[in-house]
Amino acid sequence: MGDIEKKLFSTVPFIVILILAAIFVLPVMALAANQALDKLSEVGADSGPYEQVTEESGVSNIAGAVIQAALALIGVIFLALMLYAGYHWMTARGEEEKVEKAKDTITRAIIGLIIVVGAYAIWIFILNQLIYQ
User: What is the three-state SS of 9-34?
Assistant: First the structure.
Protein backbone atom coordinates (compact mmCIF):
# COMPACT_ATOMS: atom_id res chain seq x y z
CA MET A 1 0.00 0.00 0.00
CA GLY A 2 1.21 3.48 -0.79
CA ASP A 3 1.22 6.53 1.41
CA ILE A 4 -2.02 7.83 -0.08
CA GLU A 5 -3.90 4.63 0.70
CA LYS A 6 -2.57 4.60 4.28
CA LYS A 7 -3.69 8.18 4.82
CA LEU A 8 -7.10 7.48 3.27
CA PHE A 9 -7.72 4.36 5.37
CA SER A 10 -6.53 6.09 8.56
CA THR A 11 -8.85 9.07 8.05
CA VAL A 12 -11.95 7.08 7.05
CA PRO A 13 -12.65 5.76 10.58
CA PHE A 14 -12.19 9.27 11.93
CA ILE A 15 -14.67 10.69 9.43
CA VAL A 16 -17.16 7.89 10.14
CA ILE A 17 -16.91 8.59 13.88
CA LEU A 18 -17.50 12.30 13.28
CA ILE A 19 -20.55 11.60 11.12
CA LEU A 20 -22.02 9.18 13.68
CA ALA A 21 -21.36 11.66 16.49
CA ALA A 22 -23.12 14.40 14.52
CA ILE A 23 -26.09 12.12 13.86
CA PHE A 24 -26.49 11.28 17.55
CA VAL A 25 -25.52 14.62 19.13
CA LEU A 26 -27.30 17.20 16.97
CA PRO A 27 -30.87 16.05 17.80
CA VAL A 28 -30.01 16.13 21.51
CA MET A 29 -28.65 19.65 21.20
CA ALA A 30 -31.79 20.76 19.36
CA LEU A 31 -33.98 19.18 22.05
CA ALA A 32 -31.96 20.91 24.79
CA ALA A 33 -32.40 24.28 23.07
CA ASN A 34 -36.16 23.68 22.80
CA GLN A 35 -36.41 22.73 26.48
CA ALA A 36 -34.37 25.79 27.48
CA LEU A 37 -36.75 28.07 25.57
CA ASP A 38 -39.75 26.41 27.24
CA LYS A 39 -38.23 26.93 30.69
CA LEU A 40 -37.41 30.56 29.92
CA SER A 41 -40.99 31.23 28.87
CA GLU A 42 -42.25 29.60 32.09
CA VAL A 43 -39.95 31.76 34.20
CA GLY A 44 -41.03 34.89 32.38
CA ALA A 45 -44.71 34.05 32.84
CA ASP A 46 -44.36 33.29 36.55
CA SER A 47 -42.22 36.27 37.51
CA GLY A 48 -43.66 38.63 40.04
CA PRO A 49 -42.75 40.59 43.16
CA TYR A 50 -43.25 37.60 45.47
CA GLU A 51 -42.07 34.10 44.79
CA GLN A 52 -44.52 31.41 45.78
CA VAL A 53 -43.53 27.92 46.83
CA THR A 54 -45.01 25.67 44.21
CA GLU A 55 -44.78 22.00 43.51
CA GLU A 56 -41.81 22.70 41.24
CA SER A 57 -39.76 24.18 44.08
CA GLY A 58 -41.05 21.94 46.87
CA VAL A 59 -39.02 19.88 49.29
CA SER A 60 -39.56 16.63 47.40
CA ASN A 61 -38.21 18.08 44.17
CA ILE A 62 -35.20 19.55 45.97
CA ALA A 63 -34.52 16.17 47.60
CA GLY A 64 -34.87 14.51 44.19
CA ALA A 65 -32.35 16.92 42.69
CA VAL A 66 -29.91 16.21 45.53
CA ILE A 67 -30.31 12.46 45.05
CA GLN A 68 -29.77 12.81 41.30
CA ALA A 69 -26.61 14.83 41.92
CA ALA A 70 -25.34 12.23 44.40
CA LEU A 71 -26.00 9.40 41.94
CA ALA A 72 -24.22 11.33 39.19
CA LEU A 73 -21.24 11.82 41.51
CA ILE A 74 -21.20 8.10 42.31
CA GLY A 75 -21.23 7.37 38.57
CA VAL A 76 -18.25 9.66 38.05
CA ILE A 77 -16.38 8.00 40.93
CA PHE A 78 -17.14 4.57 39.44
CA LEU A 79 -15.85 5.67 36.05
CA ALA A 80 -12.68 7.09 37.61
CA LEU A 81 -12.05 3.86 39.53
CA MET A 82 -12.55 1.79 36.39
CA LEU A 83 -10.15 3.97 34.40
CA TYR A 84 -7.61 3.86 37.23
CA ALA A 85 -7.78 0.08 37.49
CA GLY A 86 -7.71 -0.37 33.72
CA TYR A 87 -4.64 1.82 33.42
CA HIS A 88 -2.83 -0.15 36.11
CA TRP A 89 -3.83 -3.44 34.52
CA MET A 90 -2.56 -2.35 31.10
CA THR A 91 0.72 -1.07 32.53
CA ALA A 92 1.34 -4.08 34.80
CA ARG A 93 3.59 -5.72 32.18
CA GLY A 94 2.84 -9.19 33.43
CA GLU A 95 3.45 -8.53 37.12
CA GLU A 96 0.83 -10.68 38.85
CA GLU A 97 0.49 -8.54 41.99
CA LYS A 98 -0.33 -5.41 39.96
CA VAL A 99 -2.83 -7.32 37.84
CA GLU A 100 -4.50 -8.76 40.95
CA LYS A 101 -4.65 -5.29 42.54
CA ALA A 102 -6.30 -3.90 39.38
CA LYS A 103 -8.80 -6.79 39.28
CA ASP A 104 -9.56 -6.23 42.96
CA THR A 105 -10.20 -2.52 42.34
CA ILE A 106 -12.54 -3.32 39.45
CA THR A 107 -14.40 -5.92 41.53
CA ARG A 108 -14.83 -3.57 44.47
CA ALA A 109 -15.99 -0.72 42.24
CA ILE A 110 -18.64 -2.92 40.61
CA ILE A 111 -19.82 -4.26 43.98
CA GLY A 112 -20.08 -0.70 45.32
CA LEU A 113 -22.07 0.42 42.31
CA ILE A 114 -24.42 -2.56 42.63
CA ILE A 115 -25.00 -1.79 46.32
CA VAL A 116 -25.76 1.89 45.66
CA VAL A 117 -28.06 1.23 42.69
CA GLY A 118 -29.78 -1.59 44.59
CA ALA A 119 -30.39 0.63 47.61
CA TYR A 120 -31.80 3.33 45.34
CA ALA A 121 -34.07 0.82 43.60
CA ILE A 122 -35.34 -0.54 46.93
CA TRP A 123 -36.01 2.98 48.19
CA ILE A 124 -37.92 3.94 45.04
CA PHE A 125 -39.96 0.73 45.25
CA ILE A 126 -40.84 1.36 48.90
CA LEU A 127 -41.61 5.00 48.19
CA ASN A 128 -43.95 4.13 45.34
CA GLN A 129 -45.71 1.29 47.22
CA LEU A 130 -46.14 2.91 50.62
CA ILE A 131 -46.32 6.64 50.11
CA TYR A 132 -47.97 7.09 46.74
CA GLN A 133 -50.76 4.53 47.16
Answer: HHHHHHHHHHHHHHHHHHHHHHHHHH
